[in-house]
Give the backbone structure.
Amino acid sequence: MLRYSILFDHWDMYLQGFTNTLKASVLALIGSLAIGIIIAIFRIAPIRPLNWLGAAYVEFIRNIPLVLIVFVFFVGLPAVGIRLDPFTAGTLGLMVYTAAFIAEVIRSGILAVPKGQMEAARSSGLTYLQTMRYIILPQAIKIVIPPLGNQFINLVKNSSVLGVIAGFDLMYFGDLISSETFVTFDVYIFVALFYLVLTIPLSLGVGYLERRLAKTR
Amino acid sequence: MDFAGAYAPAHLTFLLQGFLVTLEVAFISIIFSFIFGIIIGVIRYTKIPGISQIFAVMVETIRNLPLLLIIFFTYFALPEVGLKLDKFYAAIVALVVFESAMLSEIVRSGLNSIDKGQIEAARSSGLTYVQTLWYIILPQALRRMVPPIVSQFISLLKDTSLAIVISLPELMNHAQIINGQNVNYVIPIFILVALMYFAVNYSLSLVSRKLEYRQR
């Protein structure tokens, strides 16, 4: 039987961790969407050096661990004189890491729009940027939404690395509560439930959107 | 920044030792999660009443939890209920539990992507259901699953670094030990460690891309 008194006695701490996990995830999502869109545009723009730059970012970041990126912000920056608090360092790390995955999602969404659309728009006199803005992106967004949802789920789960650098998220407060109560098992079961409260509805939502998109195709 | 000091031979061997642990944990976890992933994926595909649903709930729960939490739980919480594992095995158990769930979903959707007509044709030519799965469906599905499975393996290799929370002596842990000696080592060490992970993972992704290309 789980000791539910732990949950009730430390409700404030759990809630604070939950709020910070959500905050880090949402902030990182906004930031990584911005960076991801720029990188995706770099990768498909008809300018070679930008293509290489975008590809280099994506390939490099995707192939190194998130923990390493977070440590670069938390341990590496202070070594060159820039000090960040753990929450900011963690959120920036999440942003930089997730941006690489989001860039790929957006790029493949744009590439999924038939080539004829670009040709037709260009030959009707729109510039490249106008074509992107009014013709290609509105169509790509529909394709991109379910995989972006998956990236957000990953983001919520990955935000747990904040716990490694004491970033005031759910994992951190779990640690705190278990060192106060000398209980680990029950404490982390409740931490898990808090994560599931966020991720399960998101998963169900993404699944629904995927099925609906598959039908309209 | 002290590149010469950071890359002293003693440090390089220490990092390499860490990297060997990373690769060892990743390799063992890959083997086991591949086996379990296929078994669970097939069970969910065949829709055996009861069992299939139990696995569905387990897979969905695990997939929706952070791996860090599972590692933490395996190492710190399981001893409370009498299951004590040392760091090395705790890391492997946690990785296998998490990655099997992820792989089983890849396997399941790979199996679902094979045309149902194949089953009907194989069954009506006299093969049993198990024979049909083994000789007709699985070989075709596996070929399609190669690219997502390889990228899951890349994730697994990166995720071994999360075991730093239980101070498993892997690459990130060893890097942090060196960083603790001198602030001027931090940037050079992170550059080297990033390149080590990148070298292995990028080669894996090139292999996967080649396999993907050959299918077309």
Remarks:
- Residues 9-46 of chain B form the longest helix (38 residues).
- Chain B has a mean pLDDT of 93.
- Chain B has one domain: 3-215.
- The domain at 3-215 of chain B is CATH 1.10.3720.10 (MetI-like fold).
